[in-house]
Amino acid sequence: MSGVGTRAIVEINQVANQFQSSIVIKVGQRYIDVKSILGLSITLFSNEVYQLEIHGPDEAEAKHAMEELFIKHGLPLSED
């Protein structure tokens, strides 16, 4: 299991915190708030598949930004 680098975790967290929307990733049966750097630190591994769940007034912009970051850092997203 290889963990994601600190730079990726910080970048994802900082971008998520720019949005008002709730941004959560689902990993297996767990839900992690992307705005929580601690949650990201213990959750992001390159061999996992993530599902983004975004709700709020700027969800379209947040979804686009998060998808770009996950792709940039080699973190696979599910299409569900």
UniProtKB/TrEMBL annotation:
It comes from Paenibacillus alginolyticus. Residues 3-70 form the HPr domain. This is HPr family phosphocarrier protein. InterPro entries: HPr-like (IPR000032), HPr-like_sf (IPR035895). The lineage of its organism: Bacteria, Bacillati, Bacillota, Bacilli, Bacillales. It holds the Pfam family PTS-HPr. Transmembrane segments: none annotated.
